[in-house]
Amino acid sequence: MPKTRKLTLMAMLTALSLIVFVIEAQIPAPVPIPGVKLGIANMITLVAMLVLGRREAGLILLVRIILGSVFAGGVSALLFSIAGGALAYAVMCLTLKSFPEKMLWAVSILGAAAHNAGQLAVAIALTKTAGLLVYAPVLIASAIVTGAFTGLGAMYLTRAVKRLDKRA
Amino acid sequence: MNMKMKKWIAIFAAIFLVCIGAFALLRHFGMQGTVAVIRVDGEVYEKINLDTVTVAYDMEIRTEFGYNKIHIEPGSISVTDADCRDHICIRQGTVAEAGVPIVCLPHRLTIEIEGGYIDA
User: Fold this and answer.
1) In terms of CB atoms within 10 Å, which of A103, A105, A168, B67 comes out highest?
2) Total structural domains in chain A?
3) Closest-CA distance of chain A to residue B88, Å
4) What are the chain B neighbours of A77 within 8 Å (beta carbons)?
5) Do B4 and A103 touch (CB under 8 A)?
6) Across the strands, what pairs with B13?
7) What is the pLDDT of residues B61-80, one digit of tens each?
8) Residue A33 belongs to a domain
């Protein structure tokens, strides 16, 4: 992929992930359980990993997290975002090669679970309330549902982006 | 669908069911507890023995993180008003047993019911 093309695609994916992140933050939580959300922005991280590479995906994620906390959330949310994002990124990097492209949803589930684990750890550290650990099972269950959804979305999105790339 | 796909679908489905079951159990079979511990930013803000409460009352908590109104009744506690963004703390409802704590993450506030002792 030519350099300019790569840079443009990275910029576009960053903007896209920021938009979905900000929009998702406005949607009221469907269940009264802190930390349960779709995580659509993670779709973009996965697409970037597959189309551009892990390093580029990491950069896009970093910029999205920092800008995301500027537009929605604030400093407190930044801590949660970094912990969740970094863990999810690490787990997805490690597991991406272990699954075929058709099973991207499994990678996404593992990433979502890692994200929720990171956020729960920050929540327990900040509030010093160990009792929050009872939310762990429900956060894992929610990661399985939302991770599968965003993973499937990322798979189809990746195919579409690769098709476009071939045509160009 | 190949074997690997089936295997992982089964694994995730099993984990999902176990987790949902575990959370339902934790929620419905809470342990005995009477002391509500309210924490803000990791510090104990207030401890209330819910067994000694005879008349329901409200308590307003205003901190640098935001505002929450706590409703205390004989034997139970809930958040009834807050200026946080998601209002998850209000929607978590009333708790009366130790088990699942109420949490308002934007305000770093948690309400947890602990055993019948005060170690303040």
Assistant:
1) A105
2) 1
3) 5
4) 106
5) yes
6) none
7) 999 999 999 999 998 999 99
8) no
> Average pLDDT for residues A137-142, to the nearest whole number?
96
Chain B residues touching A101 at Cβ < 8 A: none
Which of A31, A129, A135, A155 would you mutate first to test chain B, the one with the most B CBs within 10 A?
A129
**Between chains, do A127 and B92 touch, taking CB under 8 Å as contact?**
no
Q: What CATH class is the domain B35-114?
A: mainly beta
Q: Predicted ipTM?
A: 0.88
Whether A78 maps to a domain, the answer reads yes
**Does residue A145 lie in a domain region?**
yes
pLDDT (mean) for A70-87: 87
Instruction: Give me the CATH number covering residue A122.
Output: 1.10.1760.20
Nearest to B112 among A28, A35, A131 (CB): A131
Q: What is the pLDDT of residue B120?
A: 44
Cβ–Cβ gap B23/A126 under 8 Å: no
Quote the domain boundaries for residue A22: 3-28+38-167
Would you say residue A70 lies in a domain? yes
